[in-house]
């Protein structure tokens, strides 16, 4: 059975009286080529744990289960559970967990499995793409990599470099934790139903060593948030007030680091953000 075929999805929907939920971002994949690209990028072998976010009717789950030691699929919609029971019948290495991924302790799932490497995959629900990614990264997810389908616009923001129009807090934050590789672009027509926007698949390789050394990680993220929170303002204006540091002290910091005070956050490299945050952290310690 071609589980991904629109005719199969429609047949399953009817048989189970299942209604697709727009608010849960239920746009199911219908293209075997894209499914294969995601599975190939996950580079799965028999010793691996795959955690899938939002299995839907199980198109990626089944392919992962064919290759991995263990698959844990976290699905919020309990109406999909009887369907998944049918489509995943016979795969005894798969566990479906009915939960919200944002409230799931992914590191506990990883710690409880004795698999050699953990990979997280998912055709993400677009209404919470950024919270899912940031939640996993900020909690120090113990996976090797994450292969995620997301809106093209979010993928562009994640991959953007300093100076580009799409460069922002998300670019710096994700690039601090990961290196991002574009796996493939995905046209909206390969989903049922088709969303309004095109998509892209990224492979986020979790860094073992961070690209910059920080004295105070929280300060680094405060600087990013403040800088991009008021991206039209110059750094001297947008960064003042962080940790009680006034405008003159921001200017002094920028001068000593050789960064012009009229630059804006969108032009700062991750190294420059790190240098500013380290200076501020030192100032705060007195
Ligand atoms: N993997 C399937 C596919 O590719 O056809 C479905 C992908 S669909 C874009 C997103 C899936 O995430 C849906 O099954 C939806 O119910 C599920 N979902 C939405 N919000 C979720 C959440 N907070 N936690 C876990 N799953 C969620």
What are the SSEs and their pairings?
Blueprint: H1 6-16, E1 28-29, H2 32-42, E2 48-53, H3 59-67, E3 70-75, H4 81-87, E4 94-98, H5 106-112, E5 117-123, H6 129-138, E6 145-151, H7 152-159, H8 169-177, E7 178-186, E8 191-192, E9 199-206, H9 217-229, H10 235-238, H11 247-257, H12 270-285
Parallel strand pairs: 2-3, 2-5, 3-4, 5-6
Antiparallel strand pairs: 1-8, 6-9, 7-9
Bound molecules: S-adenosylmethionine.
S-adenosylmethionine is lined by residues 24-29, 53-56, 59-60, 74-77, 100-102, 123, 125, 128.
Keywords:
single chain; 286 residues; Rossmann fold; 2 domains; 7-stranded mixed beta sheet; two-stranded antiparallel sheet; elongated; binds S-adenosylmethionine
Short description:
With 286 residues, the chain is of the alpha/beta class. It has twelve helices and nine strands.
Task: Describe the structure in your own words.
- There is one protein chain.
- This protein is of the alpha/beta class and 286 residues long.
- It folds into two domains: 6-206, Rossmann fold (3-Layer(aba) Sandwich); 217-285, rRNA adenine dimethylase, C-terminal domain (Helicase, Ruva Protein, domain 3).
- The protein is 41% helix and 18% strand.
- It contains twelve helices and nine strands.
- It has helices at residues 6-16, 32-42, 59-67, 81-87, 106-112, 129-138, 152-159, 169-177, 217-229, 235-238, 247-257, 270-285, and strands at 28-29, 48-53, 70-75, 94-98, 117-123, 145-151, 178-186, 191-192, 199-206.
- β2, α3 (59-67) and β3 (70-75) form a beta-alpha-beta unit.
- The structure holds S-adenosylmethionine.
């Amino acid at each position: 059975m071609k589980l991904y075929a629109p005719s199969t999805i429609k047949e399953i929907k009817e048989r189970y009286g299942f209604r697709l939920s727009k608010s849960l971002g239920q746009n199911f994949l219908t293209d075997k080529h894209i499914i294969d690209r995601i599975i190939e990028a996950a580079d799965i072998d028999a010793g691996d744990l795959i955690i899938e976010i939002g299995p839907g009717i199980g198109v990626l789950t089944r392919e992962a289960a064919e290759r991995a030691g263990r698959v844990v699929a976290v699905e919020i919609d309990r109406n999909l559970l009887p369907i998944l029971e049918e489509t995943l019948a016979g795969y005894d290495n798969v566990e479906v967990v009915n939960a919200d991924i944002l409230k799931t302790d992914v590191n506990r799932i990883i710690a409880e499995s004795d698999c050699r490497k953990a990979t997280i995959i998912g055709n993400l629900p677009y209404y919470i793409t950024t919270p899912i990614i940031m939640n996993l990264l900020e909690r120090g997810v113990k996976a090797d990599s994450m292969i995620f389908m997301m809106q093209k616009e979010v993928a562009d923001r994640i991959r953007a470099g300093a100076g580009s129009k799409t460069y922002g807090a998300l670019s710096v934050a994700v690039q601090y934790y990961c290196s991002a590789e574009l796996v493939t672009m995905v046209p909206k027509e390969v989903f049922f139903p088709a969303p309004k926007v095109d998509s892209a698949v990224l492979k986020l390789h979790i860094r073992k060593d961070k690209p910059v050394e920080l004295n105070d990680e929280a300060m680094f993220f405060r600087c990013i948030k403040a800088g991009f929170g008021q991206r039209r303002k110059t750094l001297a204006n947008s960064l003042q007030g962080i940790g009680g540091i006034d405008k003159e002290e921001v200017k002094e910091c920028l001068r000593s680091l050789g960064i012009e005070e009229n630059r804006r956050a969108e032009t700062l490299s991750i190294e420059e953000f790190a240098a500013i945050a380290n200076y501020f952290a030192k100032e705060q310690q007195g």
